[in-house]
Amino acid sequence: MTQTQPSDRESGRCINCQQEVSTPYCPQCGQPYPAERMSVGHVLADFQGRPYGTRGLFLRTIKDLTVKPGEVVRAYVMGNRVLYNRPVGYFLLMITIMLIVASVLQIDYVTFLQVSSISADGLNDHQAELNKYVLQFISSNIKLISLALIPFQAFIARYLFFRKSDFSYLDHTVLPFYLEGHLNLVTIISLIGFRVAGFYIPFWFTTILTLIYFGFGYTGFIVHQSKIKSFFKGVGIFIVSQLVVAIISLIAGFLYILNHPEILEMMKKK
């Protein structure tokens, strides 16, 4: 079983600043008391609430998600709601910042995806045109596509890889929300490099970085087993979820092509 630290929630002290509390909110930092585990209400409030908070909160979230992502996830799941940005809000904010950066730098996101993606290498004219349609779909629906990964990652973590932990399905959504959102920093850096020097971070590198980052995140989040096991299970969660979403995407892409005669005609010519 995981260490849930019940004393922090039941001792009469704030889980965030350790101030003695006798009211629904800590007078020192505003943390709700007693600290509560994740619920559907928390997730809905996250979607509707402010995604950013104070500047210091945002910078702390970025810093700690870089160096100790598992601890950030664990703190939020255990009930600390004032130390970091909320996971859903942070996830949506980072995607929005990425798209704003692309817009400000006047970078066509489809072109950027074509250049940085391995799928753009060695294509003939017909294949390149079809690839462009796919990337346009991804660009237009990037938030929805990114969001679609979260429930699969949480399901795989809760019911396949970490069945013995006492974290709920909703608890397991926190890590992918934080980590998927934070990985947009890599894309932002790549966009800036692409505009300033024609440099971009290749797809293969971001894939390897993502696998390592997910594994690293789970080593700090799951503490009832060895860090090595948690690391490789984290990598496995990401790979399996990508395969599941890839299969669903292929089915969706097939249906999309059936409803767009111009793509079918292009494929027939090929």
Characterization of the model:
With about 270 residues, the chain is mostly helical. It has a domain at about 85-270. The protein has 13 helices and no strands. Helix 4 (about 70-75) runs antiparallel to helix 9, helix 5 packs parallel to helix 10 and helix 8 (about 140-160) crosses helix 9. It is globular and about 70 Å long. Mean pLDDT is about 80; it is low at about 1-10.
List keywords for this structure.
270 residues, mainly alpha, 13 helices, 69% helix, globular
Summarize the structure.
This protein has 270 residues and is mainly α. 69% of the residues lie in helices and 0% in strands.
Biggest pleated-sheet summary: none
The span between the termini is 57 Å
Q: What radius of gyration results from the CA coordinates?
A: 21 Å
Number of strands: 0
Give the class from helix and strand content and strand pairing.
Answer: mainly alpha
* Shape field: globular
Mean pLDDT: 79
Into which percent range does the helicity of residues fall?
55-70%
Low-confidence stretches: 1-9
Which H/E pattern describes the elements?
HHHHHHHHHHHHH
Number of helices: 13
Strand content: under 5%
